[in-house]
Specification:
- This protein is of the alpha/beta class.
- The protein is built from 9 helices and 6 strands; from the N terminus they run H-E-H-H-E-H-E-H-E-H-H-E-E-H-H.
- The protein has a 6-stranded parallel beta sheet with strand order 3-4-2-1-5-6, sandwiched between helices.
- Helix 5 links the parallel strand 3 and strand 4.
- Helix 2 packs across helix 3 and helix 4 packs parallel to helix 5.
- The relative contact order is 0.19.
- Bound molecules: 3-methylbut-3-enyl trihydrogen diphosphate (2 copies) and magnesium ion.
- The site of one 3-methylbut-3-enyl trihydrogen diphosphate has 11 residues, from strand 2.
């Protein structure tokens, strides 16, 4: 069993992103409707947020609803939206108690008015908190985000803010909804699916990927610790050789 102290004393990922998957299967396994799984996923969110805040992780991004999830049965989408409102309202206190600042990425204009309103209120209320930044990805998909960035950059070129040749990684990153948010070092997906499902495609270029069979409603801080410990045991080479990396580590002493 990995303890909090063991991982906190090593290099922590500054940004952890999680694809919270498996709610529906968790509920079905218990003979319940899928929505029961979503409701029970809230406890996993709470524990993960608290544990991340305690550890000193700076950014935690949670994939809560994808652009493609709008294509689910209407009753499930409605249930998810109303759960979102209840959860945001109920959990704002937990966020305040843990000094967590709430942010959101995605096509927020496509959210129902009451969701947008409550989300905005929670974002404002927590805006001066200085601990963990909790980023909710809502009505989010990476291709939507990338296409939007291209439109924005094209408009800036048309407005002569810069020329085509100026476009570089930095300009592109700044046109994404994640501008000002560092790229995730660690991406976790629960439920045993080994795919990205249109999440942060640009930002995870060099993220370490961690897949666990645990279904999201069962995910707790010990699962998070296990993922971080796994990350801490990896060598991130960024295209260099292993020798170059260890030379650097030795030079830093
Ligand atoms: C993740 O769980 C929650 C959302 C995508 C909103 P799922 O609802 O995808 O659960 P499974 O994958 O069907 O088990
Ligand atoms: C990804 O899960 C989206 C979220 C967790 C919000 P899905 O369950 O929608 O992904 P697929 O359909 O299995 O790829
Ligand atoms: Mg799923």
């Amino acid at each position: 069993m990995i303890t909090k102290e063991q991982i906190a004393s090593k290099h922590l990922p500054g940004h952890i992103a999680i694809i919270m998957d498996g709610n529906g299967r968790w509920a079905r396994q218990k003979g319940n409707p899928r929505v029961f799984g979503h409701k029970n996923g809230v406890a996993a969110v709470r524990d993960t947020v608290e544990a991340s805040a305690e550890l000193g992780v700076k950014y935690l991004t949670l994939y809560a609803f994808s652009t493609e999830n709008w294509n689910r049965p209407r009753t499930e989408v409605d249930a998810l939206m109303s759960l979102l409102v209840t959860t945001i309202n109920k959990e704002t206190k937990t966020l305040m108690d843990n000094n967590v600042r709430l942010l959101a990425i995605g096509d927020l204009e496509s959210l129902p008015a009451n969701v947008a309103k409550n989300l905005k209120a929670a974002i404002e209320k927590t805006s001066t908190n200085t601990g963990l930044n909790l980023v909710l990805a809502l009505s989010y998909s990476a291709r939507w985000e990338i296409v939007n960035a291209v439109k924005k950059i094209a408009a800036d070129v048309a407005a002569k803010k810069f020329v085509v040749n100026d476009i570089d990684n930095e300009i592109f990153s700044n046109a994404l909804t994640t501008c000002n948010i560092p790229d995730p070092e660690l991406l976790i997906r629960t439920s045993g699916e080994n795919r990205i499902s249109n999440f942060l495609l640009w930002q995870i270029a060099y993220a370490e990927l961690y897949f666990t069979p645990t279904l999201w409603p069962d995910f707790r801080r010990e699962h998070l610790y296990a993922a971080i410990a796994d990350y801490q045991g990896r060598e991130r080479r960024f295209g260099k050789t292993s020798e170059q990396i260890s030379e650097n580590v030795n030079a830093k002493g």
